[in-house]
Amino acid sequence: MKTTLDLPDALVKQVKLRAVQDGQKLKDAVADLRRKGLAVATEAEPEAPIPVVTKDKETGLPVFECKHAAAPDAAMTPERVAEVLLGQEVEWHHDAGR
Questions:
Q1: What is the 3-state secondary structure (H, E, C) of the chain?
Q2: What burial letters (b/e) apply to 47-74, b meaning 16+ CB within 10 Å?
Q3: What are the distances in angstroms from CA 58 to CA 15, 43, 55, 61, 81?
Q4: Rounded-to-10 torsion of CA 13, 16, 29, 6
Q5: What are the beta bridge partners of residue 4?
Q6: Cα separation, 38 vs 27, whole angstroms
Q7: Tens-place pLDDT, residues 6-34
Q8: Does the predicted model carry a pTM greater than 0.70?
Q9: How far, in Å, CA of 12 to CA of 64, rounded?
Q10: Burial class (CB within 10 angstroms; exposed 0-12, middle 13-18, buried 19+) of 18
């Protein structure tokens, strides 16, 4: 299957060098490295429980029930939600100005 990827130049150079060192074509080197990366990621990830999604009776908004409580610094308080949304908005404006 053919696909197009937009990769950083430095990464492409590293993969090309590795392909030459291993006597591989670039496409084969990319496939091998991706397979290895996926295998490591799969081994490192514990099986995540399926979240339970319900609706809040008052607002009708979805509620995601988690198995474990969030750490105090990771809890999604109204202040934390506002911080995340503000950060996204700043990023969008920054990206639009490029």
A1: CCCCCCCCHHHHHHHHHHHHHHCCCHHHHHHHHHHHHHHHHHHHCCCCCCCEEEECCCCCCEEEECCCCCCCCCCCCHHHHHHHHHHHHHHHHHHHCC
A2: eeeeeeeeeeeeeeeeeeeeeeeeeeee
A3: 54, 41, 9, 8, 20
A4: 40
A5: none
A6: 16
A7: 889 999 999 999 999 999 999 999 999 99
A8: no
A9: 40
A10: middle
CA distance readout (Å), 56 to 36, 39, 53, 68, 69: 42, 38, 10, 19, 18
On whether the CB atoms of residues 54 and 62 are closer than 8 A, the answer is yes
pLDDT digit string, tens, across residues 33-47: 999 988 887 776 666
